Amino acid sequence: MIKAKGYAAQSAKSPVSPWTFERREPGPHDVQIEILYCGVCHSDIHQVRDEWGGSIFPMVPGHEIVGRVTKTGDHVKKFKVGDLAGVGCLVDSCRVCDNCKDGLEQYCLNGMSGTYNGYEQDKKTPTYGGYSNVIVTNEDFVLHVSEKLPLENVAPLLCAGITTYSPLRHWKVGKGHKVGVLGLGGLGHMAVKFAVAFGSEVTMLSGSPSKEADAKKLGAHKFVLTSDKKSIDSVKGYFDFIIDTVSAPHDYNLFLSLLKTNGVHICVGAPPTPTEIMGFNLIMGRKSVAGSLIGGLPETQEMLDFCAEHNIVSDIELIAIKDIEKAYERMMKGDVRYRFVIDMATL
Amino acid sequence: MIKAKGYAAQSAKSPVSPWTFERREPGPHDVQIEILYCGVCHSDIHQVRDEWGGSIFPMVPGHEIVGRVTKTGDHVKKFKVGDLAGVGCLVDSCRVCDNCKDGLEQYCLNGMSGTYNGYEQDKKTPTYGGYSNVIVTNEDFVLHVSEKLPLENVAPLLCAGITTYSPLRHWKVGKGHKVGVLGLGGLGHMAVKFAVAFGSEVTMLSGSPSKEADAKKLGAHKFVLTSDKKSIDSVKGYFDFIIDTVSAPHDYNLFLSLLKTNGVHICVGAPPTPTEIMGFNLIMGRKSVAGSLIGGLPETQEMLDFCAEHNIVSDIELIAIKDIEKAYERMMKGDVRYRFVIDMATL
């Protein structure tokens, strides 16, 4: 076994703090990665605090992992020692169901193995995430990362990036489309960058007037203040798509009224409580409310390659791991532009 | 003006009863139709009783109209006296908006003119529906009806038919798809017939065990009793599409669990109250909840032609117009197989 250092939550009540634990030695198809940076996802907080239920403790959070390959199993073909590598939200899946065969491992019908707060495919070995110095992952769930981009800014692409890239690709969002992005956080700022890169007209929908300048800086063409009736009324029936990154409860019916005929409201964030929808708001205009979960492995690689080619990365604030709880507090207030990334050298 | 006979509700509290009123003389582009049959839609009850708000009284309900052309305006090109003709849920629209230009008049951005309980495009002349002996309609909103099919059984195609045909076509439902039809009423029985005709495997989802035999007779391949956990569990993650025809409140989350990855829950009926949806139920499997409203004029004609070619009609119970209130009472109990149609000779 490999002695790993990391930060873990020991229970839903305890802070995320130093912990040593064991990783498996790399098997024939495994890649051992020295973790250099790990992004801090909002879902880390939910899971650490067991707000979604069923959390597994001790928990080493983190699923926006980038680093360098330090060891490879005998049968590893895709990676060699010294390569940059990334690990996202999943580290394994059944590989035999229809979804796995289609490269939609995130929807594995037999249950994918989350990078942390989950179990390996044996359904009993807990998985530990990226707030750590090392990870050992089957090469099929490891991504190639370009040397061209600043590595710390790449980390959030593994979750915030693919979560917004995937639905935009799935719904073929591109030139001629009007896209609203609801919420300017880790997901929202990536949604703006991708939708702009795909040629759409992008409007930031936000409740904070202070975000207007930032949204424009990120490339958004328009800004709509959701708390202002006049501003909202100016985009009634306007959008082909709304990418909804907000995980606090909010009024879906209001945003359905901003969609064109055939418009789609795509949730990539979701409130923990049910949302009320009036059926008539869907029927009058053949509208849809849809959801999308991260992305499969092939699409995640495609996204990373696209980012390298188009020089797209996440805007980040680099932190030391000892400041993780402070980072959580700031995230709870929406005070981060736009992703905290842990410099693992500080471990 | 033309003196028309009909049945109308004078207020939300009064029964639908005999009334004489005036129709316009046919203008150059109008077709005058002697109404022979008119279907009774569930929405007639909601509107007569002002359950959706904003009802306009007196109200002559009815938007499943078939009859014979008795007069044509000088510029009418599509119809001649003696032709069979149908009028569905709308009698006009702005004709200039993007949706009208796309043949999606039901989503007219300037407001379509409903066949009854609406206004002509002047936004002040009330429209009166099919519980009547005659209607005068612009030829662009009149459909050709085949002489091959029993005319009384064609009437419900103008609403129940197109309402289910349109979403099945829009979402390209066909061979290889597993389709669930929720609710076996006027809409549900047409959804079964069309989905079967399009080559899908069709499952009737119903809370009434008594509907199983009927569903099979209509062509459904499977029957699932929604009140039975074992029966429901047998179709978890099973359907590509669910056509939801139920307008009473019901648990959308349950039906989302029956969808496959990428599955779509399509509402053609909608409860008058909001429905609670858990965002995670959309995200986990890239599922959608969508709505669809009747169909545009080109697609309604396509549907009627398809029905003539494939010998598809509605199952009906023919009634005299004096029995309309009794019919409403039976409909409220779901006691109709599957559409009441008024024989207008009884007026």
Throw out a few tags for this protein.
homodimer, 347 residues, alpha/beta, Quinone Oxidoreductase, Chain A, domain 1, Rossmann fold, 2 domains, seven-stranded mixed sheet, six-stranded parallel sheet, 11 helices
Strand content of chain A: 25-35%
Overall structural class of chain A, as computed from helix and strand content, comes to: alpha/beta
Please report the two chains with the greatest interface, counting residues with C-beta closer than 8 angstroms to the partner's C-beta. Answer: A-B, 36 and 36 residues
CATH fold descriptor of the largest domain in chain A:
Quinone Oxidoreductase, Chain A, domain 1
CATH class of the largest domain in chain A: Alpha Beta
Global shape of chain A? globular
Q: What pattern of helices and strands is seen along the backbone of chain A?
A: EEEHEEEHEEEHHEHEHEHEHEEHEHEHE
Query: What summary fits the major beta sheet of chain A?
Result: 7 strands, mixed
Q: How many strands appear in the DSSP assignment of chain A?
A: 18
Written overview of the protein:
Two copies of one chain form a homodimer. Chain A has 347 residues and is of the alpha/beta class. Chain A is globular and about 60 Å long. The first copy, chain A, contains eleven helices and 18 strands. Chain A folds into two domains: 192 residues, Medium-chain alcohol dehydrogenases, catalytic domain (Quinone Oxidoreductase, Chain A, domain 1); 131 residues, 3-Layer(aba) Sandwich (Rossmann fold). In chain A, the strands form four sheets. In chain A, strands 3, 4, 5, 8, 9, 17 and 18 form a seven-stranded mixed sheet that branches. The longest helix of chain A has 14 residues. In chain A, 52% of the residues are buried. At the A-B interface, strand 14, strand 15, helix 9 and strand 16 of A face strand 14, strand 15, helix 9 and strand 16 of B.
